[in-house]
Amino acid sequence: MSVLAQGLAQPNGGMSLLAIFFAAAVTDNILLTRFLGMCSFLSISSQMKASVGLGLAVAFVTACTGAINAAIYWYVLAPLEAMGVPASSMQLILFIIVIAGFVQLLEMVIERVSLGLYFALGIFLPLVTVNCAILGAALFMINKGLRVADGFVYSLGCGLGWMLAIVLMAGVRWRLRTAKVPPALEGPGITLIICGTMALAFMGLSGLIK
Amino acid sequence: MPGWQVILIASALVCAVSGALAALLVFAERFLVRYGRCLIDINRGHKRLTAQGGRTLLATLMEEGIFVPSACGGRGTCALCKLKVLQGGGPLAPTEVPLLKPDEIRDRVRISCQVKVRNDIAIEVPEELFSIRSYRGVVERILDLTHDIKELRIRLVEPESIRFTPGQYIQLVAPAYEGSPEPVYRAYSMSRPPSDDRAVETIIRLVPDGICTTWVFRHLKEGDEVEFNGPYGQFRLSTTPREMIWIAGGSGMAPFWSILRHMQEKNVRRKTMFFFGAVRRNDIFFLDEMRRKEKELEWFRFVPALSAPAEGGQWDGEHGLITEAVDRLAGDAADKEAYLCGSPGMIDAAIKVLKAKGMTDDRIFYDKFA
What we know:
The complex is a heterodimer of chains A (210) and B (370). Chain A is an all-alpha fold and 210 residues long. Chain A has one domain. Chain A is built from ten helices and no strands. Chain A has helices at residues 2-9, 17-27, 38-44, 48-81, 87-113, 115-121, 125-129, 132-143, 148-176, 188-203. The two termini of chain A are 18 Å apart. In chain B, 26% of the residues lie in helices and 29% in strands. Chain B has three domains: 37-129, Beta-grasp domain (Ubiquitin-like (UB roll)); 133-232, Elongation Factor Tu (Ef-tu), domain 3; 244-368, Nucleotide-binding domain of ferredoxin-NADP reductase (FNR) module (Rossmann fold, 3-Layer(aba) Sandwich), CATH 3.40.50. In chain B, the strands form three sheets. Chain B has a six-stranded antiparallel beta sheet. In chain B, strands 15-14-13-12-16-17 form a six-stranded parallel beta sheet, sandwiched between helices. In chain B, strands 2-1-5-3-4 form a five-stranded mixed beta sheet. The mean pLDDT of chain B is 88. Chain B has helices at residues 3-32, 57-63, 102-106, 211-219, 253-266, 287-296, 322-329, 344-356; strands at residues 37-42, 47-52, 82-87, 109-111, 121-124, 133-144, 149-158, 169-174, 184-189, 199-205, 225-232, 244-249, 272-278, 300-306, 318-319, 337-342, 364-368. Chain B has 370 residues and is α/β, with parallel strands linked by helices. The relative contact order of chain B is 0.10.
């Protein structure tokens, strides 16, 4: 525990990589504290196997596109900002294009490399493209002024945090199968209520990392 | 910096990034999705093909002239394209699982429109599929049988004649037309006996929003060229002398019209009771023809039934659902055979009635329309 505390407290002109990762994944969980990426979260969390698959896909895409987007921002957009090009609106369009293109590429690579993985994950990839948590992670990363290496760790943390949230929810819903849920709340209703409760729990972790 | 220059740079940047990504995707597709030539071994060496990989097994086989039946055209819904893949088919796709029964999966049956040819593959194709060909023809006559049923006669052009067993069907190609962007295949039973081998006739009922039937009813004209492939299907008379009960509704008349006239030509005399159901007086057709056949053939009896006869004039035939008429009039069914052609709902109901009358499963033959 003390190693963790030391790692978290390490001053580096900012936060240490571990702190960035932990904050992104847990205390600042993109789904439970910022409520991004809820659509696929609500529908896919009904099955554990699918949730793990989707979570992995989202984590991978978020991490990779995070790094690419950070590079685009800091090496292309930021210099252009000096010339009057509004980076804040450009980043929106460019990040989206990069995310969509990356997912297409990923689908082709997975199909070629591992057919089993393609059938397990492949149907989720279009779902991943429209997941707003990925764009959100990229934009927050820029907001915080993180560069490419830090940005990659941050995005990875966001992605894995999203995966954590959906897997937790899948576990809770699995247990709920034998519970008496009021008919009107079955499905999305009870899921949202649980999501709120989980968010409250995660709120308790805020302030852990300054 | 002046506004227009900013706009120019911004647009150029978006174009550059999009272009770079698009180029990357094109190259990736070229290198990653290329599967080269793949060897397809059919029926353990009976036939061998090499084809360009990367497409579905169904599409590849169709291209090579092996016509695997498909009603949905490769969308993974009709399950007619089932084939055994002995080797090289890859793992079972999630889209195949709901269409296959557990013992089919064990026997390595796959849905060929969902199997992609990525490497050498060994498959089993039923013998009958090899005699299936693609035909081109000209519409010789379109006859209105009722307000929503037409009889279509197609004279064959290339090849000039067709051989089939009465009861089989063809897959008509409805080409792209306004409202339907791609060609679609739909199955229709042939209604003429095989002795007339220069032409093919079918009976088509208009389906609301049906892609093919809309084409036939609204766009097709006499003199138009059409394409179809076939003959398909296992629905045919058995070789036993048992008495028969035929049950059909609407365009289900087609195979029986072919079988009946074939039986007359070949002097096959098996006691037959043909139950034909419709809703109203104006839904029924071929009444005169059927009565004439009853006079000509002493072993044939035609029993039409209307479920709502009151609307549309007088009716002196049976009343009620066709399955009710079967129940009333068919008698003990223990030693008889049944042939059914119509909607899945009608067939399921008819099977129940027949079994209640003592008929066994192996004597009930049917052709379910999707």
